From TrEMBL:
Mg(2+) binds at D32, D34, D259. GO terms for cellular component: cytosol; plasma membrane. It is a peripheral membrane protein. This is Pyridoxal phosphate phosphatase.
Amino acid sequence: MDGAVGGLKGCLKVRGSQIRHLLEAKDTFLFDCDGVLWHGEKAVPGAPGVVNTLIGRGKRVFFVTNNSTRPRENYVHKFYRLGFTDVRREQIFSSSYCSAVYLRDVARVRGQVFVIGGKGIRDELREAGVPFLQEEEQERRLDVDGQPQPDATIFNCDLSADVKAVLVGHDDQFTFLKLAKASCYLKDPDCLFLATDNDPWHPLKDGRILPGSGCLTAALEVATGRKATVIGKPSRFMFECISSQFSGVDPAQCLMVGDRLETDMLFGSNCGLDTMLTLTGVSQMEDAEVYSKSERSTEQSFVPDYVVDSIADFLPAFEELD
Ligand SMILES: [Mg+2]
């Protein structure tokens, strides 16, 4: 299918038979979750039917999410609860799971990980067998005699000699002391600096926003003069994780479906995948068109090949396939 329309690269609004061609041409579908399959606890209408049908037709389906707050087991329950009844844990590649894989298999970190993050990250590290400082140890407010020291500060708190990596993810219990401790650990150039993702913010109801992990990472980057290695989208690592666990995943046969141009579409582009923007989430058609007119090559990589109003637009195409 020709991706050019109206003189613009990509941004091809597809429907009906064009979607059917894509469904025939691709054997692997990668979906972002929030804004594509659901909004918080509410499924995008039609999305469960689309995912269940793709799986039922023998397509390979993977989920790539920068949300580090849940372990995969918890995601499986959420998928099921919202009507995605055929999703298995092995299909879910979250930034917390992929960070644990990176620390175990790529960095092979020897020592402990200092975590700025929550339960999703700790559970995945534990399951991967990657040692990390427990929250109580991180937050230890005892003096050398083991007496409570409620006013621990960076001037008097303990620091572990065994920390060899700092991992930053979403942390709604973020404190100045955590930032200060992480900055001290990162003074050691051999201490790895990882971020689950670099998302700036997430939409909430009523126009409110939730600051993303990217803000916390940025604070630490300024304090240390170092740059974090980002595990989640748009970095390629999630796709490498998929390829290493499933044989024969061919980028040319994959479609990456997401709602955010700067992460999902760039991720697809970085991995050599065709990309599809769905308009049920953060980015809108006008945003894609602005990027498509840009002369900067990075911004060209934000431009989706295809656009749909919702992935529910796949449903009529399935009927035509029969
Ligand atoms: Mg999203």
